Input
Amino acid sequence: MADLETDLGELSPVVCHASDVNQAVLNIVVNAAHAVSDVIEGTDGRGRISIRTHRDGDDAVISVGDTGGGIPEEVRGRIFDPFFTTKDVGRGTGQGLCIARAIVEKHGGRLSFETAEGKGTTFFIRLPIDGPRAAPSPAGVAA
Output
């Protein structure tokens, strides 16, 4: 069991495909729930999942934090790889974070995380409020 905390700050509407961004957030929340479950399994304890939003300059930031076990240092560089999972067979496909990152990057954003073993992990989805920024045109070419 986990308690859900929210702190939803004022945000301007974000230019995005809302259903895609919802899928990215859902994938991260499901991972958070699994991480908390792994830590409290067999105890009377409760975990915590926190979802926060805020504006940072021209970006909207969504953070999803948990009180799970954190991501072991030896696998941190692989967590966004397709089919990589630390979950038991039948519990995860290794697609959630890969899909979430692809969605965020398609929107011109960035997906990052902070983690501490034994304390939990927080993922940060950073999206440009006005939609993906156009790539600069090569010199001498009109856009």
About this structure: The chain has two helices and five strands. The chain has one domain: 2-128. The chain has a mean pLDDT of 90. The longest helix spans residues 18-40.
